[in-house]
Write a structure and sequence with these properties.
Distance between the termini: 16 Å
Shape: globular
Oligomer: single chain
Helix content: 40-55%
Radius of gyration: 21 Å
Number of strands: 9
Order of helices and strands: HEEEHEEHHHHHHEEHHHHEEHH
Low-confidence stretches: 1-28
Strand content: 5-15%
Number of helices: 14
CATH class of the largest domain: Mainly Alpha
CATH topology of the largest domain: Lysozyme
Number of domains: 2
Largest sheet: 5 strands, mixed
CATH architecture of the largest domain: Orthogonal Bundle
């Protein structure tokens, strides 16, 4: 069964919505918990409060984020978000997305640490082990670099690519590109960053421009896939070389790599050019997103957030989750989300 079919199985069986309020105990599958929610915005806020993840944050203390991973988005959020004050809508969206961004960055930094360990071996003049050579080759392929005979140069080139994306930048862009998760592309295909594809299977804009070719907006099985794809895009595509260069320079200078610092390099992300950059920087500044640039995930198990469309559906959902767990299907579904970074 494909990952798309797996995600559809979970979505259909659980009648998933995007945000809701916890009503039952969690079901476990391996090291993950799954919390069933029923959709009431005020109770969602209470849930975040119970996780110490709601209310004003001060820049005097780094943000500590629970590992609450949004499993699937749906049309419910489009409707619910229209009924609540804009500030609450924004806060709910940012709190739903920032754990995904931090987890994706965490996986990238694990790869960077592995790369730095290989670099240390090379700098000592030692021969790379079979495992280290395989890891270096795998990272080079993943990040779009050719295999070469000069490990030092290859590692140096990779270090410019295998690096995290400031969370404030990612949050600003997903808010802009997805309309805080309400766009058709976000709802129909978990497309949080509006990335184009020319594969022929992308979601077609209503006003498709033939002059731009056979393009569409890339769809994803899971919201987390969209986040990882976005980061991979910034870390590999030639259009974002300026971002990678500036990030590398800031690191070498021992300066903070902030979203605002890198936003200036993204004039190629949109046809709007520097006007896009101006709006993006405004989103980051007005909403105080820079506080997330030093945020970290708590040292705790991942909790997958699953919602149902009403209190009466909770027991039914729990039963079906248990059926999936016993059949082994639930573990396959969770594995397809690649939350541990495995391809």
């Amino acid at each position: 069964m494909s990952s798309y079919q797996l995600s559809q199985s979970l979505s259909i069986l659980l009648t998933i919505i995007w945000l809701g309020a916890p009503l039952t105990a969690a079901a476990k599958s391996n090291s993950y918990e799954i919390v069933v929610h029923a959709g009431e915005i005020d109770k969602t806020v209470e849930f975040f409060k119970s996780k110490n993840f709601w209310g004003p944050k001060t820049h005097a203390k780094d943000l500590n984020v629970p590992r609450l991973i949004l499993a699937v988005a749906s049309k419910r959020w489009q409707q619910e978000s229209q009924k609540i004050p804009v500030p609450v809508k924004k806060e709910l969206f940012y709190r739903a997305i920032v754990p995904l961004i931090l987890l994706a960055n965490e996986l990238i930094m694990e790869e960077r640490q592995e790369l730095e360990s290989i670099q240390a071996t090379v700098n000592k003049g030692k021969a790379l082990s079979t495992k280290e050579r395989a890891s270096l080759k795998s990272l080079a392929q993943k990040y779009g670099l050719q295999d070469g005979d000069n490990p030092k140069k290859q590692i140096a080139d990779l270090l410019d690519r295998v690096d995290s994306i400031p969370p404030s930048l990612a949050l600003g862009q997903t808010a802009y590109e997805s309309g805080y998760g309400t766009s058709r592309f976000a709802v129909e295909g978990n497309a949080l960053f509006g990335q184009w594809t020319y594969s022929g299977d992308g979601m077609k804009p209503k006003e498709h421009r033939a002059s731009k070719g056979n393009y569409g907006v890339a769809a994803y099985d899971w919201p987390f896939d969209s986040v990882r794809s976005y980061m991979q895009n910034l870390n590999t595509h030639r259009a974002y070389q300026k971002l990678r260069d500036k990030r590398a320079t800031l690191r070498k200078q021992g300066k903070d790599v902030s979203g605002l610092a890198l936003a200036d390099t993204l004039d190629s992300y949109s046809e709007k050019g520097m006007e896009y950059v101006k709006t993006l920087k405004s989103i980051i500044t007005v909403n105080g997103l820079d506080i997330t640039d030093k945020a970290s995930l708590r040292d705790e198990p991942i909790t997958l957030i699953v919602g149902v469309e009403g209190v009466e559906k909770v027991e039914e959902a729990e039963t079906k989750i248990e059926q999936l767990r016993k059949s082994g299907e639930l573990d396959r579904i969770i594995k397809s989300m690649r939350l541990d970074g495995e391809e």
